[in-house]
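Lab manual, section 2.4: Encoding a predicted structure.

Procedure: take the sequence of the chain (498 residues), apply the prediction step described in section 2.3, and record the output as structure tokens. A sample record is shown.
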Amino acid sequence: MKKFILVCVLVIAAIPAYLLLSGTISVTSFAMILNVMAGKGIETPSDEVIENRIQVADGFGLSLYASDLPNARFIAMTANRDLLVSRPHKGEVVMIRANRDDASVGGERVTLLEGLNKPSGIVVAEGWLFVGESDAIGRIVFDETTGTTSGSYERILEGLTGDGNHPYKQIKRGPDGKIYLSQGSTCNVCIEADSRRGTMGRFDLDGKNFEVIATGLRNTMGFDWTPWNGDLYGTDNGRDLLGDDYPPCELNLIQQGKFYGWPYFNGANEADPDFNPDSAPAELVANPVAPVHEFRAHNAPLGMTFIDAEGWPEDFQQSALVALHGSWNRSIPDGYRVVSLHWNDGKIERRDFLAGFELDGDVIGRPVDITQGPDGAVYISDDYAGAIYRMAYGEEQKLLGTAKAEEETPFELQQPTWLTADNTATYKAAGQQLYDKFHCQSCHNPAYARGNMNLTDANQRLQYADVIERLTKPRAPMPVFPLSEADKQALAVWLLDQ
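Recorded output:
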């Protein structure tokens, strides 16, 4: 608990005061910052919540493949349909075995590796399991058919730096057989002490012959090669603290020897106000490469996968899926979805593929990474809700992701047996005192609180038992308060008996 409080204090101290006063940093923003920095999230939403909130692309079925998997970040599928999941803040790589009886849900979970330093990217190749730790790349012998490791884990590329804002290392195997490595920046905008940060590089399977192939990439955690011509594309997160709508996040066509702008340019090669290109080495900024597609500012595109669209609709034949992790540096949250990008006559069209994780500031998920299985289904990790989702075309699964408002029973607040006409006023007065004592208004002020944080309509959606349950097992960023059972009942009355 002390460690968690310390993290909260450090996070708050790092945020400029003017952002707090201007409203750029919201309650939702705090929760998203804690999610990234400390791996904090929420419990996986119930089937009912998912079914009534999440929207899927036409013709696709959705299932909750795995739940209760906090900080599930990057994923990779084996040839045997076992799903590998990295959990950076847990320091481990977990395998979810394929369920041979029901493809829509995962089977047994096995911890393959533990005690790692913020493991992120995962690659299975040539009988090895490769892992991108924050300060090294390691590997261990791995049998895909049995899902087992053997021998000792060895670090094959050491001396990487894992400090700063973006310590994670994303890796994928390229068509040339090499392992490609993306290293995010240490900062928002700066000149890096380690010239390998903010770049794309590659190396041999034994860790040798590392080389940087592209620079000026602030945080490219998603990249993949087109099936039709082998071009390498990568997502990139634009910088923060220049307002709600600037600069855009990016999709770049990554080519060897090219410079992609950061920290001197934003978006379509617009000069950054803090790092004017006039002060930069001329050879570096002579020909910056502009993005081929722009995402909305602060959407934080992460995982990206080109689709094998066999059996999918025709308009997916040249397409990729991108996970938008969602904003923290915005007064109104944005992102929090998976989009499909469609290449059509030289243009890239964006569509929603899996949406509904954010509604009026209430966030129930943050998509991170995407992979496709041998069966054509796609798997999507969510590090905020600790979940893995599965989407399959033409396959009706357990969750359809479509709201059924016409079937809903109207909400009716049920009065508990412990609440009577004689004690209501006493409970309510005590609840108001507790509400003031613990400064609940600082987070639940209806003037700015959004979604479930706004309690003005709590008596239209929560029962007394729901409030008591949330006070007993609060979700981040809400702390655990020293409350007796009578205190929790009093707060429930204060909130619901309005």
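Check your result against the sample. Confidence is low (pLDDT under 50) at residues 1-23, 400-408.
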